Amino acid sequence: MAESKTILIAEDSSVILNLTKKILELQKYRILTAKNGGEVIKQVENNKIDAILMDLNIPVKNGMDCTREIRAHENKEIASIPIIAVTGNANNYSMEDFKEAGINDYLPKPLDFDALVLTVKKYTAS
């Protein structure tokens, strides 16, 4: 079997984080986590990450700012990591806002776990 893909979950709610982690681990993904925007940047610089599930309302640096920072990264591999926004406030953003920040896709909260798995697979299929 191919080497398992690594997903970074940026989420400050431990309940959502643990549920999402369990669902993706059942699909054989390797999971890294970040509770705030500062940790997100550290994780992408220290690990090979195949996709990011980015909660937009995380402390320190919100998901939109993190995404912009990742997209502007000098390392092209880091700058091109697929980013899937996860938010309960999608109404506060338009698809244009997401595109402008560099977000590839988005999942509304409460998470639909089937949609979660399908979306992650779509961006990590090699």
UniProtKB/TrEMBL annotation:
It comes from the Bacteria. The keyword Phosphoprotein applies. Residues 6-124 form the Response regulatory domain. Gene3D superfamilies: 3.40.50.2300. Pfam families: Response_reg. Keywords: Phosphoprotein, Two-component regulatory system. This is Response regulatory domain-containing protein. Signal peptide: none annotated. Coiled coil: none annotated. InterPro entries: CheY-like_superfamily, Sig_transdc_resp-reg_receiver. The keyword Phosphoprotein applies. The modification 4-aspartylphosphate is found at residue 55. SMART domains: REC (SM00448).
